[in-house]
Amino acid sequence: MDVLSKTFYDQLVQLGSQREEITPIIKERATDFIKSLTIWQILALVSCLYWALTSFAARTEDGYLKEWGDQWAMNTLWSHSEVPIKAISENRNDQMGKYLEAVRKELDYALEMEVPDAEDWISIDVQLMIQKLLARLVGKMIVGKPACRSPEWMDLAEHFTEDFITASIIMRLVPKWMHPLLTEVIPQRRRLRKRLQGVFNITDPCVARHEEAKMKRKQGLEIEEEDNMVAWILDNIKDQDYVLKNLNKLVVVMLVPAAHTKSPTLHEEILQVNKEHGEIGEKLPMKEWVTKLELLDSFFNGSQRLSQPLAITPNRYAVEDITFKDSLQVPKGALLGWVSIHNQIDSNIAPEPEKFDPMRSYGKRQVAAEECHKHLAGQPSLENLTFGYGSQACPGRNIAISILKMVVSRLLRDYEFKFADDQSKPKNIYLLEFIIPDPKARLMIRKRK
Ligand code: HEM
Q1: Mutate which of 306, 394, 407, 435 to test ligand 1's pocket (most atoms within 8 Å of Cβ)?
Q2: What is the tally of structural domains in the chain?
Q3: Residue 85 CA: which ligand 1 atom is closest?
Q4: pLDDT higher than threshold 80 for residue 201
Q5: pLDDT surpassing 70 at residue 158
Q6: Residue 213 three-state SS
Q7: N or C: which end of the chain has fewer CB within 10 A?
Q8: pLDDT digits (tens, 9 = 90+) for 265-276
């Protein structure tokens, strides 16, 4: 027992022995205190107590406290349900191709809304531009049109993740027992709860629209409804009570990783692919068209290897005690994380590990016929753990790479980019395990002449 606990313990023992003398004094003071209160003060006190008890009970009941109070908040929200993973990765009847096709159809509108019509060089916040573009595109895939164009969706996509990450950092800096209190105090948590509840304002009309479309289809009417993940969930998940009650969380779990699908740039190859295969989706479906961009693929891999969003991934949570063959014991509740950025300094994993080589993966694929389907962007490997590893690796990785290729190839085809004269590649910011691109970074953009 440390000195502080010992002192406290001694005081308790002393108090215990004096209990008989102290109890009447406490009773008397408490009665005096209650008598001194006005009726309004009593009402306020009772309301506070009632609010504290009911809100605590409600949160503990549906796991809310665990979800939003856990210091590894991201992990607990993520591991709640298999439904989003199924909606993203279930590929019967070429479901992924259908989502990508829906996304492609939104591209022109999204570019028109978010990319400035710059005839001459102007400076832009490129991260914000990409973030908004992606919010629109993944919105088409998750909630469909018109929800993906609504201000509510754009607000959710733009702000949910930043509050989520900030809140989870703050929570991690304080002891767990303070979480229930802190969750009421910090503005990020309040905004998260409000936005999470507000997701129903986005999804309720989607559900109604989908139900109406189904009914009309049954009557043999032609319906214009493109594939989206919410509709897939409504059609394919048996427990509809669960789905309707938790649709807000399911949507957020799909949105957060999808909307932060960021990566940088290439040009001649893009022109060549456009020349040979037409515009994206014109002669070839998007899913096949994007595979033609092999240099861009290798570029993404190289860029991601050195600029991953998380320094520690994959993360696994021990749901029971585990003893490995070499008798290493992992207790229930432990969180295991791999230092994914280790590959950036280990030459056994990647020769000249610190060097950015956009052709690294492309070169490897040319070495032998059996290598040509390996080393592609989105394939987890020891060199690149950006998408995690193993059976639980990111289910949206192929979608992410396809959307990135579509967006970047269009931007590079139609626009030129450069740093302003006094700027160079922005530095990453390291905050706990999060690796954040410099939020102040800007780029110059103009339409290609
Ligand atoms: C560049 C973009 C992306 C990156 C870097 C990324 C990264 C990751 C990582 C590291 C994980 C954890 C994997 C593990 O534990 O082994 C993950 C999980 C996940 N990702 Fe992605 N992701 C991206 C895009 C997407 C997209 C576009 C979607 C949805 C369409 C998506 C949906 C998910 C979901 C639902 C999980 C949780 C899977 C689970 O709980 O087992 N991600 N992602």
Answers
A1: 394
A2: 2
A3: 35
A4: yes
A5: yes
A6: helix
A7: C
A8: 567 888 888 888
Cβ partners under 8 Å of residue 435, min gap 6? 307, 308, 309, 310, 311, 341, 428, 429
Q: Are residue 94 and residue 239 in the same domain, yes or no?
A: yes
Residue 367 CA to its chain's centroid (Å): 36
**CA atoms of 430 and 279, how far apart (whole Å):** 39
Residue 381 CA to its chain's centroid (Å): 21
> In this structure, is residue 432 part of a structural domain?
yes
Task: State the binding site for heme.
Answer: 394
The DSSP secondary structure of 331-372, one letter per residue, reads -TT-EEEEEGGGGGT-TTTSSSTT---TTHHHHHHHS-GGGT
Return the ligand 1 atom nearest residue 399 CA.
Answer: 27
Q: Are strands 443-447 and 415-418 parallel, antiparallel or unpaired?
A: antiparallel
Closest-lying ligand 1 atom to the alpha carbon of residue 385:
10
Residue-wise pLDDT tens digits, 107-118: 999 999 999 999
Contact 140, 98 (CB under 8 A): no
For the entire predicted model, the pTM comes to 0.77
Domain boundary among 260, 275, 290: 260
Domain span including residue 296: 265-449
Ligand 1 pocket, CB under 6 A:
78-79, 84-85, 88, 253-254, 257-258, 261, 309, 313-315, 386-389, 392-396, 399-400
Residue 259: name the closest of 190, 162, 116, 192 by CA: 162
* Residues flagged as binding site: 394
pLDDT tops 50 at residue 3: no
Q: Tell me if 31 is assigned to some domain.
A: no
Please tell me the distance between residue 394's alpha carbon and the centre of ligand 1 in angstroms: 4
Cβ pair 385, 308 in contact under 8 A: yes
Which of the listed residues 133, 296, 341, 387 should we mutate to test ligand 1's pocket, taking the one with most ligand atoms within 8 A of CB?
387
Residue ID of nearest Cα to ligand 1 atom 17: 394
Tally of CB atoms within 10 A around 394:
21
Residue nearest atom 6 in ligand 1 by C-alpha distance: 387
Same domain, 315 and 189: no
Nearest-CA residue for atom 11 of ligand 1: 394
CA distance 96 to 299: 23
- Give the mean pLDDT of 322-339: 91
Distance of CA 313 to the CA centre of its chain: 14
Smallest CA-to-CA distance from 76 within 197, 182, 179 is with 179
- CATH code of residue 407: 1.10.630.10
Within 10 Å of residue 135's Cβ, how many Cβ atoms? 22
Local structure of 422: helix, strand or coil: coil
